[in-house]
Structure formats: C-alpha cells, structure tokens
Amino acid sequence: MPLLTRRRAADRDATIPCMGNAAEARRSINDEAGGGATGAAAGRGGAATGEGGARTVHLTKVYGTGDMAVRALDDVSVVLPERRFTAIMGPSGAGKSTLMHCVAGLEDATSGKVYVGDQELGALSDRRLTRLRRERIGFVFQAFNLLPTLTARDNILLPMTLAGTSPDREWLDTVVRVLKLGDRLSHRPSEMSGGQQQRVALARALVTRPQIVFADEPTGNLDSRTGAEVLTLLRNAVDDLGQTVAMVTHDPVAAGHADSVVFLADGRIVDVMDAPTPDRVLDRMRGLGDLR
Ligand SMILES: Nc1ncnc2c1ncn2[C@@H]1O[C@H](COP(=O)(O)OP(=O)(O)O)[C@@H](O)[C@H]1O
Ligand SMILES: [Mg+2]
Is the whole-model pTM more than 0.85? Predict the structure, then answer.
C-alpha cells in the first residue's frame, strides 16, 4: 500500500517548516530563524511566522452552498517559511490555486486562519487588506491578469503607480533583462504571445520586491530555457533579496529549484518533501496521479 506509506511519511514530516500544527510550525520557524527576530514577532502577535513568511491554520475554503458546495481546501495547516522557496504540487482541482489565493488575501477563508507575517488576514478591514496586498505581496496569476489597455511597461509598473512610488531602476532593468522583455515594453497584451504575457506578469510581481511572491505555474507557458531563467530569478530573489516564494507547478524540474514541496490532493496536504530533486518529486507524483 504505497499511499499509506506516504501518509505515514507525511505524519513523520509534520515538524518540518512546511506543515504541521501551529506549535510545530512555531518551533520549526524558531529553530530556523535562530531566535532574535522571530522571538520579537512572537512577542508582538503570538504568531511566529516571521515578518516575511505566511501560514494557514486549519484553513477550509468552500465554494458555493448546498448541493453545489465544493470543498476546495479542507483543514489545511501549512507554513510558507520566510526566505524559503516552497513549491505546491497536486492533481488538477486539488486546491493549489485556491490555497495561493487565500494566503495572498484574494479569497476569504470559510473557516480557519491565514497569517502573513504575524498579521491575521481575517482581522483586517478591506482597506488594510488591500494595502497589505499591495505593499507585501506579489502575485503571478495562472491567467496573467494583465490590463489589456496598458503597455507591458505600464502593466509592470502598475503596482507602483497605484502606490504612488517609483521603481528601483537597477532592479527594474534586471527584471526586464532576465525576463527578456526589453523589446516588448511598448506592446499591449494582445500584441504578445502567452509566454511574453507570462513574463510581464512575473515582472509585475517582482518589481516591487514584495516580501512574498506567489506564482501560479509561472513557467507553464515558457520555453525550457526561459523557464530555467525564471526559476533562477525566483531562487535568487529568495537567496539574495530575502523574499519568500510560493510556486504552483506540475513540473518536477521546476519543483527541484524549491527548498520544499507541499503535495495537495482533494483539498488536503498529503505530503511534504524537503530538499526536493526532480527524480524524488517525480517518484512521489506517480503515487498521486496526474498532477496537472
Ligand atoms: N470560484 C470558484 N467557484 C467554484 N468552485 C471553484 C472556484 N474556484 C475553484 N473552484 C473549485 O475548487 C476546487 C479547487 O480548485 P483550484 O484551487 O483551482 O485547483 P487547482 O489549482 O489545484 O487545479 C476545484 O474543484 C474547482 O473546481
Ligand atoms: Mg490552479
């Protein structure tokens, strides 16, 4: 019964940073952060995710009501540790996008809690939630969500335009260069390929240097070379800029760039893997069925 073995492995892994109950999460984060900053965070709010991380506690999300109800997330407690790159994998409909939307404050929880740093999202007014999203979170949507009337440049700069701030030119240039958007900046989304639109969406999420970047299949429409560069960019954002990254992917090679992989199925966490390699991820995926 391979699945049972996997479930046991998941139980055993419950103390690693990516999953487990709140006390375990606190302990592992404390261990990781080496005291100082985390202790301060715990002192302020009692939640010790750290300023840059996020976590859910018994998060359940139900869409619709009655016969139409869909339990997209079912009692999910997960930690996205600060300064770590977490991949989220699972079959289609497993709840991957819903989890990212809830943690990013784009969807309300039906029950349970979501913390960004030590701030519980459910306790925020709409206005403060909008501000938190704008200032601390970057999101790359599965469907890009670019504004059709704006050029690539204006789409990339939109979060800063809305916030009334100006970009760090050097970082903007780096993002544009790595994402190979230099000759596309004056184009509108309708004049760009899917891959180009995806790179604009990624640039928009990275340009403000948010604490947490959520990316839903960021390499899904890219050729393998550009995809590899995007993954390196995300990896460097974690290692060099101290960003926290959560990425949905179905690609074991992409997941291999992460520090850990959270496996979801039917709205529940079924496994977590630390220090993933493409081979190990592929092996685990076989037990979960088609991961697209
Ligand atoms: N806005 C919505 N309204 C109703 N059902 C939804 C909505 N969004 C997602 N779902 C359902 O919730 C489940 C999880 O969806 P999703 O998070 O998009 O999965 P994944 O990203 O893993 O493919 C699916 O059954 C999906 O049909
Ligand atoms: Mg999805």
Answer: no
Nearest ligand (C-alpha, residue 291): 1
* CA 55 vs CA 171, 242, 246, 250: distances in Å: 28, 17, 11, 22
* Per-residue pLDDT tens digits for 169-213: 998 998 899 888 999 999 999 999 888 898 999 899 999 989 999
Topology of 2-286 in CATH?
Rossmann fold (3.40.50)
Radius of gyration of the chain (CA): 18
Both structure tokens of 268: 């529940």
Q: Where are the domains of the chain?
A: 2-286
189 Cα: distance to centroid of ligand 1 (angstroms):
26
Average per-residue pLDDT for the chain: 83
Strand ranges across the sheet with 111-116: 70-80, 54-63, 111-116, 119-120
Ligand 1: which of 98, 217, 249, 262 to mutate, judged by most atoms within 8 Å of the beta carbon? 98
What distance in Å separates the CA atoms of residue 97 and residue 72, rounded to the nearest whole number? 9
Q: Return the number of other C-beta atoms located less than 10 Å from residue 159's C-beta.
A: 21
Question: Taking Cα atoms as reference points, which of 134, 201, 203, 137 lies closest to residue 163?
Answer: 134
